[in-house]
Fold:
Amino acid sequence: MTQPKYAQTKLPGGPQRIIDICEDLRVRNKDGYLNGAGCKFLAKVKDSPIPYGPGTSCSPFTGCVIGVAFDPKYPKDDLGGDVYTPMFNGGNDPLPFGKFYHEHNNLNDHGVQSLIDFGLGEEISPKKMRRGDLVEINWVGHGGHLVFCWDVHLDDKDDVDSFLILGANGPAPGVSIYGCRDKRWLKGNNATKPGNGTFEKAKDKIFADDDDDIIRAGYWLGYPKGPQKVDKASFRVTPGLFMPSGKEWSVGTLRVGRFFYDGDPPKPVTMKGGGGGKSTTAQPPGHIDAPATTVKGADLKKDPEAPKKVVPKAAKQDEQKPLAWQHEVELALQEFFHAGWLQSDPGKSDNINDAKSQAAIKEFQKTFKLDVDGIVGKFTKGEIRKQLPACRAQHAAQQQLAKLFQGGKLKADPGPPGADAAKMKDAVKEFQKTYALPQTGLPDADTQAKLKAVVEGHAPSPAQHGLSPAILVLYWLGNTTKPGGSATLRMHTRDVQRGYEFQVVLRDLMTGREVDAGAKMKVSGDVSELAVSLPDAFTDGCLVLALVKATGDTPMEMLTVAPLYVGPPPVVPKTAPGELQKFFEFDGEAGEGSKARKHTYVAYKVPGKPQAWMIKGRLLMDVDGAPNCYHPQNKDVNTHYWSFDFENHKGALDYLANGGHPGNWFGVVTDTGEVTGKPIVQGDNDPFPGFYVASTSLADKTKKRNDPARYVDARKIPYLAWPQQVWRESGPRFKRALQGATGGLGDFMTAVNPKNGKMAHLILADMGGYNDPHFGEGSPALGKLLDAFGHSEPDILYIVYPHSGAGQGTIPTLDQINDKAGKLFKDWGGMDEVNRVLPLIK
Structure:
């Protein structure tokens, strides 16, 4: 049996310390899942690989909490310089937090394992989970999550059948209990800046045992493959939301780690009596005992109509015996209120039919033209059941309104889903007025049904375009063809009329000469293809781009991203078992100063593993995309990124000359969008007023061109820039040896520094010039992870996964990079394969 590497270390203060730290860090959490900075810490921990900051996401948050919790002294003035120093190995040694954090975050499914490997805890059966335990979740159909357990519900065997989680749970709530995200917990604008989940806290303490609102509003997760129903009567108060196992976004698999601490695990506070077992105080189905009036037989003989003349006496309901449908109504009123459909607060859902409930019911009845009597009769109950699904689907309705707005069918912009209730209300009213619906401003059931019909009525058909016709992407299938040969062109479109034809023009990339393809691209659906025969004008060595142009009144056109190479197909070299296949060569340069020289970069593939290729390159620094990259007067420039906190530096991170000059602003956003335009200066509401907006090739298309958040922030996102000839797969420096795509913007990669063994995942986010001679410019965020700043020698190994990203228009978060690239790296062979191939790379 393998002995533990380190001695057990007890958690000072037990699981309550975890809860207290989460509460304190919630106060600091101002950015939720801040786009592009989701891994920032909320507290300063010694040896942390990520600088302190106010934004967070799932596993970086749990790692930060653990780093704070294992310092024997809590709290500390860490913002004032008293940094947390977690202890381990029986509490005798400082925890190597950088290594712990790497395993906790950067390796798939290693959150719980990190506790085990560093002697901080042990794995337990998920059925015995309790408050404060570390919970590692894999969702059905989507990624995973790493959080702490807030509380559990137990079945009659005292096993967990559902649970609530506590952690960093998405953009608006940030640090929260899952589901507790409405105005009881948050106030102010949940998105005060583009790409920013900034919010203000409402309740000072939300992680409170006596707060029944948590049980009602929390999103209870069912135990994987457990019961589809739980005994709700054994809860302290009735829970509102429950996600049973098996559905999309439900819990697929579960792993739980428990810290070492003194005493027993906390008992569930959710349950009546704090324990499991079938509820002995469960509320019966509910009934009303009405007083009876007896009609005697003699009276009945005298008057057969006597029973009909008895005046009914009012029945007073036993408050301890609410009916099941009354719970249903109370919970529905809560949802209507917190979704903004009602202004009257119905109060707590266990206060059946109290004055607050009555006011909310009357408001609902008035809104939907029912008798306003405060009584939930047949018609009111039916309307509630009709409208509740529409209330839950109002974000989808907002998306449909946006389609109509983009297509010119609405004047009012509804805004993005969830962002602006007032905007959506105006758009709903305009839609309702147009189609003679009651103008409530609510996307109610009838409005949504009409919305669906109208949007479907504008779908593309053989007779018309849809609401917003556009070409999404155009590319060649395959990279080469022989002279006089043919190649297939594929086009993805949206809302384009079926049967619509596009003119196809072929362009020689090197000379710019254009030739009509002699055939038209006909739209057959969202994806269309055309077999193109190359004219004789395109001979050996030509690089052919295709341009499609609309032939009708709707202006649409697009150029292929990469060219088609005309020439003989490359010969695939034979390789012995275990050897590498040469993919391409790139004639460039390496070294600098007296060591500057010509250098041929060689890319390889592993036989049988076509999903990736690898190359050893440099790591020169590229700071483009950082909001403080360039300043008109080079304010406080510092380019020694290894020697200071570049993420929080207030001056410029690069000299303006590296972003261009008047007439050729190649790294700076201009007012015209051309290199000859005037640089855009950030305003008071931007991150760095007075600085220029620095761009990257990869951009977030949901943000405006002058928004610094549109571009990939080099301070926070590990990325690489390629020479254009590698991306285009053509040019005098690029020599192909094997078929296959190099990849495109947004693709995931892995980098390894063989000198220190450090590894990091990254994306392709920027593009060098067409004739740039070096492979390997990366962001300081990448340099920090690899401890490799400004490497002029090609000694960094890059592993590239072509077409693995979302492409142009989307910037993944650091969590998404680590998750997706981590899986690709693992499937490729991980560090074992790296260690095998490194000696084979010449």
About this structure: The chain has six domains: 15-262, 325-390, 393-457, 470-566, 581-621+718-840, 626-694. Residues 325-390 form one domain. The two ends are 41 Å apart (CA to CA).
